[in-house]
C-alpha cells in the first residue's frame, strides 16, 4: 500500500485496494513521506470510513498526542471483547478527542462534574462497568488521575457506538430526559431518590423510564386496562398527579406528547417511592 500523507509517526493516510484508508500502528509514519510503500505487517488497525469520517479522523490524529488515540484503542478493544460485538468505528474519533480534552482539563486542575452520572450508571450498566475499567486503565497508563465522573462520559460514547450512532446526542438526550423526570419526582415527594433504601425502586423507575422513552419515540404505547387505569387514578391519586406533571414536562421541555394511558404505569412506579419515604 502507498502512503498519501503522514499524519503523525503512528498514523498515515494510505491508498489501498482502490480506497483511501487510515493505517495506524507504532512507528508506521516514522521517517516516511508521500508515495513511500507501507508494509502491511506494520499496520495494527486500518480505518475505512465515508469521506467525511475519514477527514475527521485525519484531523484528529494530526492534532492530539497519539498516546490518547492508542489508549482509546485499548479501551475499545477491551469493550468489544467484554460485549462480544463490534462498535461503530466513529467512536475512535469522539472518544479519543474526549479523553485528550479531559486529560488537558485534569492537568490544569479543571474537574468537570457529571450531573447525569447516577442515571448513566443505571441505564447503561454494561457500558458503565467497562468505563470504570477504562478510568483505571487511563489513570495507570497515562499517569493522569481521571475522575469517577469520566466513567459516565465514556459510557455514553460506548452506548452510542453500540447503537450504531456516529454521535452521542440521542444517548445524552435519553439520559437527560430520565434525569429531569427523576428530579421532578424528588421535588414532588421531597425525597432523595439516591438514598440506599430506595436503590431498588430507583433502578426500576429509571429502567421503566428508558423503555417509556423508547416507546414514545417509536409511537408504541403501553396501556393499562381501562378498569385498572381508573383504579390506579383513585388509589394512587397523589402519584397519578405527579405523573401528569411529568406529562406536561415532557411536552413543554422535550416536545414529546405522552398519552394519558401511559400515566398509570408511571403512577405505579412513583407510588413505590412514595411508600418508602
TrEMBL record:
Gene3D superfamilies from the UniProt entry:
CAT RNA-binding domain, PRD domain
- For the keyword Repeat, the answer is yes
Superkingdom of source = Bacteria
Q: Which PROSITE patterns match?
A: PRD_2 (PS51372)
- Key word Repeat present in the record? yes
User: Which one GO biological process term can you cite for this protein?
Assistant: regulation of DNA-templated transcription
An annotated Gene Ontology molecular function: RNA binding
Keywords on this record?
A: Repeat
Q: Which residues form the PRD domain?
A: 63-168, 169-277
Q: What sections of the sequence does the record tag as coiled-coil?
A: none
Q: Name one Pfam family in it.
A: PRD
Name-wise, this protein is Transcription antiterminator BglG
Give the organism the record lists: Enterococcus rivorum
Amino acid at each position: 500500500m502507498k502512503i498519501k500523507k503522514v499524519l503523525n509517526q503512528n498514523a498515515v493516510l494510505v491508498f489501498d485496494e482502490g480506497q483511501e484508508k487510515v493505517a495506524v500502528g507504532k512507528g508506521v509514519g516514522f521517517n516516511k513521506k508521500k508515495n513511500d510503500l507501507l508494509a502491511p505487517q506494520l499496520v495494527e488497525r486500518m480505518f475505512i470510513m465515508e469521506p467525511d469520517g475519514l477527514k475527521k479522523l485525519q484531523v484528529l490524529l494530526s492534532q492530539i498526542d497519539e498516546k490518547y488515540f492508542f489508549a482509546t484503542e485499548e479501551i475499545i478493544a477491551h469493550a468489544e471483547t467484554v460485549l462480544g460485538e463490534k462498535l461503530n468505528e466513529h467512536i475512535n474519533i469522539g472518544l479519543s478527542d474526549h479523553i485528550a480534552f479531559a486529560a488537558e482539563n485534569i492537568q490544569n486542575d479543571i474537574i468537570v462534574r457529571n450531573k447525569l452520572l447516577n442515571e448513566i450508571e443505571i441505564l447503561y450498566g454494561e457500558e458503565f462497568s467497562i468505563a470504570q475499567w477504562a478510568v483505571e486503565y487511563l489513570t495507570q497508563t497515562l499517569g493522569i488521575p481521571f475522575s469517577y465522573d469520566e466513567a459516565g462520559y465514556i459510557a455514553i460514547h460506548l452506548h452510542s457506538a453500540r447503537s450504531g450512532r456516529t454521535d452521542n446526542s440521542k444517548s445524552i438526550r435519553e439520559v437527560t430526559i430520565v434525569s429531569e423526570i427523576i428530579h421532578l419526582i424528588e421535588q414532588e415527594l421531597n425525597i432523595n431518590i439516591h438514598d440506599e433504601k430506595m436503590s431498588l425502586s430507583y433502578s426500576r423507575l429509571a429502567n421503566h423510564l428508558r423503555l417509556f422513552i423508547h416507546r414514545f419515540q417509536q409511537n408504541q404505547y403501553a396501556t393499562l386496562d381501562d378498569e385498572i387505569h381508573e383504579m390506579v387514578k383513585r388509589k394512587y391519586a397523589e402519584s397519578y398527579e405527579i405523573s401528569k406533571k411529568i406529562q406536561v414536562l415532557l411536552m413543554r421541555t422535550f416536545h414529546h406528547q405522552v398519552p394519558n394511558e401511559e400515566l398509570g404505569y408511571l403512577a405505579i412506579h412513583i407510588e413505590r417511592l412514595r411508600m418508602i419515604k
